[in-house]
Write a structure and sequence with these properties.
The protein is mainly α. The protein has 9 helices and no strands.
């Protein structure tokens, strides 16, 4: 009889040790069905009661964790939708801005497309290419607060007050977008897209590599599109003429590596340079 009692005590001791080990694992977030082995009728009452309570608690915790995971997924989806809606809103603002000036209609989309091609050519990661593309779409958003005078033709040189408005638009764009945290570096790129390598740009006179690479890319794309499209103050240049200007001011106005990457692209030439049907096409269309 004493031997049976000792065996029962040993069994209870083993089951208690097993229960404590399971509780320790559960506390560490490691759930298993091992607890069920301690809920049988052959298990001593106190241990069985604790094991059953632990089993029920595990079920409730796992259910809550599952519900929490679903909620997190729903919040992520909602967050992505908010980002898309916000980006569509500011993109629509940029398009509305272009409607104020027939000469720049489509400019932002063209700059975005060329800038993305340059970024790809330079071997930037896809996520960075997309940042550059977005910055291209929104790069002139700061002009939405400018007066109509900046869109009107002026003889010879722009009046000082118009120049002041134009030079303020990169900072104004950054200010408009700064609370859209998901845009990240896009805001920094927009703020710096009129800076020059030689430090003679605006609004902060940044130099060289102090200028974000994305902004240096946008500057090349922006400059090319401005030169090759008709404006009130000039007829659009040929692709070759614009390319010569980019080359000539590479290292001063524009980043040399960005210009070189642009030059390597199969760029679509302006409409006036498109070859007639049957004529061969090349990387650089001939100047007219």
């Amino acid at each position: 009889m004493a031997g049976n009692a000792r065996r029962e005590m040993n069994d209870q001791s083993n089951e208690l040790s097993q229960l404590l080990a399971i509780i320790e694992n559960v506390a560490g977030g490691n759930y298993s069905n091992d607890i069920m082995a301690l809920t049988g009728s052959d298990v001593p009452g106190p241990i069985r009661i604790i094991a059953e309570a632990m089993g029920m608690m595990m079920v409730k915790v796992e259910t809550r964790e599952y519900q929490l995971e679903l909620l997190v997924q729903e919040l992520r989806s909602l967050n992505e939708q908010i980002k898309r809606n916000s980006l569509q809103t500011v993109s629509s603002m940029a398009q509305a801005l272009e409607a104020r000036d027939a000469y720049t209609r489509g400019h932002a989309e063209r700059v975005a497309g060329i800038a993305a091609l340059i970024a790809c050519e330079m071997g930037l990661a896809p996520v960075t290419v997309e940042l550059v593309r977005t910055a291209g779409v929104l790069h002139d958003i700061g002009k939405i607060g400018c007066s109509d005078r900046i869109f009107q033709p002026h003889e010879a040189r722009n009046p000082p007050d118009v120049v002041k408005e134009i030079m303020a638009h990169p900072g104004a764009g950054a200010e408009i977008l700064k609370h859209l945290d998901f845009l990240g570096e896009v805001v920094t790129i927009i703020h710096a897209h009129h800076e020059r390598i030689d430090g003679k740009g605006y609004p902060r006179r940044m130099k060289g590599n102090d200028i974000p690479l994305g902004a240096r890319i946008i500057a090349v794309a922006d400059g090319y599109d401005a030169m090759t499209t008709d404006r009130p103050y000039q007829k659009g240049m040929t692709h070759q003429a614009a390319l010569e200007i980019l080359r000539g001011q590479a290292g001063a106005k524009w980043d040399a590596d960005c210009v070189a990457a642009f030059e390597r692209l199969q760029v679509i030439a302006p409409a006036q340079e498109q070859p007639d049907e049957g004529e061969p096409t090349g990387t650089t269309p001939p100047a007219q």
